[in-house]
Amino acid sequence: MTSTILDLLPQLASGAAHTHALGFVFDGVEGDRVRIRAPWREDLVGDPDTGVLSGGLVTTLLDHVGGLATWVALGRFETLATLDLRVDYMRAAATRRDLIAEARCYRLTRSVGFVRAWAFEDTAEDPVAAAQMAYMLGSGEGRGAGVNLRAGGTAA
Length: 156
What we know:
By secondary structure, this protein is α+β, with helices and mostly antiparallel strands. It is globular and about 45 Å long. Helix 1 runs antiparallel to helix 3 (55-74). The strands form two sheets. A six-stranded antiparallel β-sheet has the order 1-2-6-7-8-5, with helices on one face. Helix content is 24%, strand content 35%.
């Protein structure tokens, strides 16, 4: 792993429009495990009667940390696409608590990264949800960012 990807992780964790809007924060790397956090906010609550964070937020958090873990395993940034994402919800998130997600890419092939992740408040041993994901590596195939938004589908 190069220091370049480690230097980029804080920006990759919260730099996209949707991750910034959701308030995702880079929380560190320990070995091959990446951790990000979603601070509790009223506007991210899925059930106003309980104050529990939205299940969609949990899924997004897990998917995003899985991509970060894949980049750590690769040791570099490259385009990824989520091929498969399974989330098992084990319990409701605690009311008015930040949610932490941790992920580890446990296998890389030439074209796919396989990841396991957990969402929790205090410890991964008491998860809100667990996830298994697969990411296609190099999914940009040399195309520039935003190519699908340009007329004719070619990079500028």
